[in-house]
Structure formats: structure tokens, C-alpha cells
Amino acid sequence: MPGDKSISHRSIMLGALAVGETRVTGLLEGEDVLSTAAAMRAMGATITRETDGTWSIHGVGVGGLLQPSQALDMGNSGTSTRLLMGLVAAHAITATFVGDASLSQRPMGRVIDPLAQMGADFTASPGGRLPLTMRGAAPAVPIEYRLPVASAQVKSAILLAGLNTPGITTVIEPVPTRDHSERMLRGFGAELTVEVERDGTRIIRLRGEAEFRPQRIVVPGDPSSAAFFVVAGLIVPGSDLVIENVGLNPTRAALFDVLRQMGGQIEELDRREVGGEPVADLHVRHSALTGITVDPAVVPSMVDEFPILFVAAALAQGRTVTSGLEELRVKESDRISAMRAALALAGATVTETEDGLIIDGTGGEPLPGTPQGARVTTHLDHRIAMSLAVAGLASRAGVEVDDTRPIATSFPVFEGLLEGLVAA
Ligand code: S3P
Questions:
Q1: Is the pLDDT of residue 371 over 90?
Q2: CATH superfamily for domain 223-423
Q3: What confidence tens digit (pLDDT) does each residue in 351-368 have?
Q4: Which of 63, 199, 354, 405 has the most CB atoms at less than 10 Å from its CB?
Q5: DSSP class per residue in 291-312
Q6: What distance lies between CA 137 and its chain's CA centroid?
Q7: pLDDT digit string (tens) for 16-73?
Q8: What is the per-residue pLDDT across 77-134, written as a single tens digit (0 to 9) for each?
Q9: What are phi and psi of 287, to 5 degrees?
Q10: Strand partners, 268
């Protein structure tokens, strides 16, 4: 599996703040990460690609970012946008963020609110959307902020702003989300503590004006990318495959537990640590899946995996019920309605609720398709495109994906890997 997208973004951003050379291997060279790299270059860092996945970064020092001379083009990437807004918030610079049609629909108010409390100033498009221009504050004001939505991007934006802010910045996280920022901030030398309360609430405190030491970072494989091949292996009869280098950080890996609860045969081989993160190879075999009710408490640890879980559910025996998925409506597309429409065209039995999907599976029979054919709309959303490609493998009439270009944002080698597997 190619490198983890979340960790790749963060390794470039933090490397760009450390004086000296940070070397990253296993970096994901997807378009989203390239958007982050271009923006950090535009703000003063020297970033060089050496060989496949091996990059060298010479940073400017915490607080040393420069004013970009042009608008920062974030492409399709919400993570680049929100985390970089955090970085800019605590620098005396003005930056304009622009993005594609999907990104320009996505809410930025969730980062504007806390960053404005820290002193940054914003002019956003209606609804708190891109294009937006912000002016950072130096010095910014440390805040204590309780996250109103379970979002690693919002948490990370505040922590990144806190890096160049005097005093202690505190983020209170009632529901744990991916913790790559916390792990990597510590790795670079920031003073960061996490207190876990009895009810699971995490209180994250970061001391600002940190001194960063450059790092060597090995990026583990992306579990969100592996997810497509795990489900393909489970639903295509005769499958028996090993997916190498899958990151299994507990704040990311709930899909694999849910699939096991459904009867999926997924075995971990050679569990090890890569770049401070748990990693294993996954041995996956075709399995008879059974529908379940997915506990909404696991949503943050598999927030990007619901589109492909819906595909697994469509092939399972019985009913799968999901809820608590409001956040899916503001991802690269409205993933609840996009997956309902696409799976229905592929012949699945799907009901949309306000916060989830209810799916009655085929019990392992291929999806039948519908008379009008299954030409599905991806809405500039890589995960919709890849999920439906996998559904096509388990459908009688096949699925036609209208636009595969978005796949390159997160998983440029997806199509080649899938073709290789099918040929094998
Ligand atoms: C990400 C956090 C999640 C996830 C996104 C990557 C990150 O977004 O959906 O793909 O790298 O922090 P939210 O913070 O909006 O949940």
C-alpha cells in the first residue's frame, strides 16, 4: 500500500517548519499531498523529490513562514486547506485559499471560528467557504477550545496554530479522532500532553513557540486505501490475497474490526511498528458476510471507510444499519446520498436516512444492475469512484464510473493494482 495520506500531509508541513533536513520515505505522491507541498514551497520551504516516495525538506523554522505571492491552490484537498489555515493563522502573513468545485462547497467555518478566536482575520465566500483570504496574527492568542464536531482536521488546525503562539493552546476532544498530528508534533520536539478523562474525553495541551528538530520519517501504508482491496477480497469469490504494509493506528482501523464482525476473514501478519505507527500485512479471503448494526461510536475511527463498507454491506446476507454519519455529508461529496444513488443503480437495496444508510444485502449473489444501467456519478470524490469500481467486480452487469480522475488525489496506483489483481 502506498503511504498514508494524513501522515504524508503532516510530514511535509512539520518538516517545512524544522530548520535542517527532514527526510521522508514512503510519502504518498497523490495530488492532495502535492497541493500541500506546493503551498509549503510557496511559503518558503525547500522541498525536493528524490526518488519514488523519498523526499527531502528543508524548513524555515517555527514561525518562519513567508507570505505566498499567489493564491494557494488546494485542489480537492480539505486536509491541506484546514491544516494550512492553522499554520497561517499564527504568522503575520496574508494568504488566499482556492480549490476545485468540490472543495469550494465544503464548510470552513469549523476552522475559521477557533482561528478567529486566536486572532486571525478572515474574508470567506458565503457560508464560510472557499475562496477565502485570511490574515494571520503574530502573536496569536492561545485558546482552550472544545471541538463541536469530531474532526481531526479542526483539532490539527488549532494545534498547528498553537505551535507559533506563546503559552499553552488546549484542544478538548470529546470523541477521539485520528492522532497523527499529536504523534508527529511530539516527534519533532513539541511539548504536547494528552490527558484522557474517565469518559474518554481527551485534553490536548501544546506549549507554543516550539523548537523543532528535523526528522527521518517513514510513512506507513494507508489503511483507507487498503480498505478497497480488503473489501474486494472479501466479496469476490475465490479471492485470497495479502495486502502488505497497512497502517493499523487504532484511531483509523475500525473498518477491519467491523468487517470481521460481519464474518470477514482478515488476518494480521507480521505486526510491526513503522514510523511510530502499528503496521501489519493483511491476509484476506473471500467470506460469507452478514449484515450488522454498526455502532456509531466507531464512526470517527473509520470516517473515510463508509463508502466501501456500504459495498460490503450490499453483498452481505441480511440488513446493515449505519447511523451517526452526518459528517459524511460534508466530505468530498455528500457520501450518504452519492453512495445511495450509485449502489441503487448497481442494483442494491438501499434506504437513506438523515444520518446513514440501511442496506439489505444480496447474501453474496452478484449485484444485479438495473435496466437503465449502472453509470454512476462520482461528484469529484475519489472514494466514491474506488468504492464503485470494487462494487463492479461483484456485479452481474458491471459498473461504469463516470470520472476516475479524482482517484489520483489519494491513490494514483489504484487502477493498475486492481487490474493486476483481476488479471491474476
Ligand atoms: C483527515 C481527517 C478526516 C478525514 C480526512 C483526513 C486528516 O477529516 O475525513 O480524509 O488527515 O486529519 P475530518 O477532520 O473532517 O473528519
A1: no
A2: Enolpyruvate transferase domain (3.65.10.10)
A3: 999 999 999 999 999 999
A4: 63
A5: --BPPGGGGGGGTT-HHHHHHH
A6: 28
A7: 999 999 999 999 999 999 999 999 999 999 999 999 999 999 999 999 999 999 999 9
A8: 999 999 999 999 999 999 999 999 999 999 999 999 999 999 999 999 999 999 999 9
A9: -140, 150
A10: 282
Q: What predicted TM-score, i.e. pTM, was given to this entire model?
A: 0.98
DSSP 137: -
17 Cα to the center of ligand 1, angstroms = 22
**3-class DSSP state for residue 25?**
strand
113 catalytic? Reply is no
The CATH class, in words, for 5-218 is alpha beta
Q: What's the one-letter identity of residue 134? A: M
CATH 3.65.10.10 residue ranges in the chain? 5-218, 223-423
CA distance 233 to 34: 30
- Residue 303, ligand 1, Cβ within 6 A: yes
**What is the rounded distance in angstroms from the CA atom of residue 423 to the CA atom of residue 246?**
23
E runs forming strands in 90-235: 94-98, 121-125, 129-135, 144-146, 168-173, 191-196, 202-207, 216-218
Query: 399, 389 in Cβ contact below 8 A?
Result: yes
Q: Which of 32, 100, 281, 304 is catalytic?
A: 304
Which of 79, 83, 171, 249 for a ligand 1 pocket mutation test, highest count of atoms within 8 Å of Cβ?
Answer: 79
Ligand 1: does its nearest atom lie under 6 Å from the Cβ of 6? yes
- Distance from the alpha carbon of residue 365 to the mean position of ligand 1, in angstroms: 34
Which residue, judged by its Cα, is nearest atom 10 of ligand 1?
A: 304
Radius of gyration for the alpha carbons in the chain, expressed in angstroms and rounded: 21
